[in-house]
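Example complex used in Figure S2.
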Amino acid sequence: MNFALFAIALPLLAAALLGSLGAPRQGAVANAVASLALFGLTLAVFWGHSEGLVAVDPLAALFGTVTGFVGLTAALVNVGYVSTDVARMPARRWRLYHALFQIVLGASLLGLYANNVGLLWAAMEGGTIAMTLAVSLYRTPTGLEAAWKYFILGGVGIGLALFGTMLVYLAAQPALGPGFAAMSFTALSTHAAHMDGALLTLAFLFILFGYGTKAALVPLHGWLPDAYAEGPAPLTTALSGLLINVALLAILRFRHLMVANAAAGGSAMPPGPFLLSLGLASLFLAAFSFSRRRDARRFFGFSSIEQSGISAFAFGIGGPTAIFGGLLHMLLHTLLKSGLFLALIRAAGLRGSVTPGNYGFSHLRGLLRANKYIGWLLAGCIFALSGLPPSGLFVSEFIIISQTIQKNPYMSMPLGLGLLLCAVAILRNIGPLLFASSPHEKLKPAGRGAWLVVAHLALVFLLAFAMPTPLVHMLSQEAEALR
Amino acid sequence: MSLTFSLAHLLGGIILLCAFLQLSQRRLAAMITLYQLEALVLSAAAFWQGFAQTELNLYLTGLITLVIKAILLPWALREIVLRFNMARAVETALPMAVSMVLGLALIGIAVLVVLPTTMSSVSLTREDLAIALSVVLLGLLLMIVRRNALAQIIGFLSTENGLVLAAIGMPDMPFVAEFSVALLVLLAFLVVGVFLLRIREHFDTLDLSGLEEIERRGR
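Predicted assembly (702 residues):
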């Protein structure tokens, strides 16, 4: 059975229902139920059979499951979020919020599962529109500014990506003939050798900058920190990593076409230098932007730019092992970052309000005096984000660095320096966040849902240090195929 | 065959001219009129390609373009101009002459990039693609050199026109892309429409240079 189709259709149907019916709290519960069903379906995709426009390869299925998992945990935390924040918006806007929640999930899954460059583009477009609406949901001046930025940059990115998509079709058309065949990823990658290399290079540039906007690669990252900081937290922070994954995977797949074409004697340029420079630029921009961020959500937004840059860098290095490292990094970072934001939402909840503007570091500091459990959990997530040893990200970053030293030694210096700068900037925040004295001295209960953060952290640890052998095989096969 | 070529190029050329002239206009009303003309010619180009390739999808694209982009959108834009009393000239970030020189440079770049890379394609597609890329780039430039929100939207819509022009020139491209573009414009406009109203509520003006609250507060 083609479970992938159900997995794409379910959130869209749920969005229609959630958007039209129900009070905020009921909506949150229904949203959680829908997300649970969706998680089940994304697991079932592994055993399903699919072909045609929506043909799922194991890599897409794996990222789909992560999408389902992140959606589920965010939806569970969202139940608590809605009940503390219910007075901030009228009931109709809460319905819109829950509908957008499901649409973002559906668009991410469509983008992952689609075996058609046009469908992938449509998914990104839908995700962009939903996210724009989500960022502006609170209707504050800063929120509208962030949404406007998102809309303009995202719209330009989507436009460039469409142009690139059409150029890919044009490049493939002589080899594959007109029609849907010249738009399917599987057909494109088997016939990459016969495609027009020069046109493919032009197409890749448009796609790199188009989807690079969605993946928040420098110089097109401007929307991300503001978008993270302004919208309702579960939707615009915990879920936004999913669309970044879709964009990065798209870039990886198109990159593979270039490499395959060049390897077979085609005239495509090697994509490595483009990806390496964008990746390093993102890494360094993040490293130098971390200081002086007062808002925690904006701060961790810059960290997403950093991680996205690291993955792009790994894809630029190329070869099966580096790509494996890049994919692992994406997986771990998605899980870790959404876990971190769930903890952050809870931490802001301890201070009384979860609306944007209550996530300043100065507002959150001294968490241990409010609740030890949440404080240590958040500190654990932040520590893991820095990529120091017991953290899962250490493994993926280690793979990427060792591959860089092997293949492109000169690049390992700036990469190491960038990683170090970022790690220092991230670690600096832990001390004040935990131990500083704060005016709010009362102990408060951790609330339900803290175990979800533990689940995220445990999963990151497990995937990095004790990944099940079948999963390792699968991921390395996929990395080999996309090398 | 030669009539197909020359008419398609003529229509593409008019679209490019409209996109370029938008750079030189200070008044929103004139920009909207130029956009309307651009969309009208685009729908004619889609119909002509539909006739030349005997493709029903292209007729449909032409119809969507005609109804939504050439009639509905300009009407709504004029309505906004009227309602918000924005008939006066809008602010530009760069002097007119500089932005027009930049526009010329972008057209040159588009031609220089597209023509050598597409040697294997039919010449109709090649030249159409060069024109389409120029229109896309000019639209992006327009978004950069105008401070007014509505002028930026017109630049965005002009970019979309360039994309549709590229899509209709592609031989037998499946309809997915064109339909998505048409849908995008509609949705984008809905989104933007919401924004405009809200921006008006909050800032009393559509000049985006006042929209720097985040900068002011310190991030």
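The two ends of chain B are 60 Å apart (CA to CA). Chain B touches chain A through 51 residues (CB under 8 Å).
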